[in-house]
Amino acid sequence: MKAVYFAWVRERIGKAEEEIDPPAEVVTVADLIGWLSRRDEGYAHAFENPRTIRAALDRAHVKPDAALAGAREVAFFPPMTGG
Amino acid sequence: MKAVYFAWVRERIGKAEEEIDPPAEVVTVADLIGWLSRRDEGYAHAFENPRTIRAALDRAHVKPDAALAGAREVAFFPPMTGG
Amino acid sequence: MEIRVQREDFVASEEALALTRSRADVGAVVTFVGLCRDEGGKLAALEIEHYPGMAEAEIALVVEEARQRWPLLGLRVIHRYGRLAPGDQIVMVATASSHRGAAFAAAEFLMDYMKTRAPFWKRARGVDGAVQGWVEAKDADDASAARWRAP
Amino acid sequence: MEIRVQREDFVASEEALALTRSRADVGAVVTFVGLCRDEGGKLAALEIEHYPGMAEAEIALVVEEARQRWPLLGLRVIHRYGRLAPGDQIVMVATASSHRGAAFAAAEFLMDYMKTRAPFWKRARGVDGAVQGWVEAKDADDASAARWRAP
What global pTM score does this model have? Predict the structure, then answer.
């Protein structure tokens, strides 16, 4: 699946998007955050405070317990500050 | 003092303004309404329902119990419908 | 000029733009424009009568109260009188503030209070040319104004 | 088009006027414009990042909810991205309705919800050229959005 990152999540991870292929035991968005966090310091830093991370699956907001299921695109970003 | 009338108060009385010289016992706005109402049918019609009459003294809203005192201009009109 | 009572039409956007020109502390501008509706095709015109002098004075009082309630960086109020056709602009308020909450609240307050305090009266003229009579004040407008009063 | 997410500036008044053109059932138009403040001279620019596709989709959901809540006769939402200087316009909403209450409420609702749901992020750049960092989401914005939820 495709992962996209925005704002300081993007800066800490060091890329705007990438293809990821999590193992079968990564079922939910929260699982994916844990799996990514173990990759390197950048990911760990991006996801260090789960309270400040928002996620979307196929461009719709989801909670951490949402199942990745057949989603093609997952996004991680800080709370929105538009308007 | 000068009396000015607006909207249907003006139409019922049949004039937009006039000089009036109420007697000394006409102390309040309510007194003046009573005194004018006894003049003729037009005034009586204009003032027949006190609930729908608003008054101003020298261009400031007042209640019926306000004293005419030294006011130079009294105005009578229906509830406002601007905006 | 902050307050204008006039027969002429106005350009709401120019009034609103004037509030932000050559300054960068304004974060929010709210503009309200009230227009003459055709009432389902029945209305040909509105004739708006006003009390010259008192209209400006009452709007000034409402503006002063808005300035005391909210931290405004600018505002404009324009109310027209005379004969207006469906689609014509009747009234506008524009408010500028650092933050949107104050700009929204002040604009709505100005409209609510102006409707119940400023001496303007509307008369409807039907498409058949006949006068349909004076528009009656609505209890809903009194209720809208009343909600700004402290409990 | 009702919703636009764009780098280019916009003319708020043209968007608002489009809502009343060739119709006479609109009685109220409320326009909100959010602008880039200079934060007391400290801010040189805002850099606004967004999630293309999702930004439009989220605004569309907010618009749909506004349409269900209030009898709107038209609306416009525009949100910019990219580098903006103090005084520049960031966002606008315009709402048209027969009556002012609906137009005011819908405009304020759209702004409150858009601020907390639409995927935009602001980064501040100081007058010394240094990045001041990402603007943090405010609890006040969540509270503003929350007041529209049924108790």
Answer: 0.93
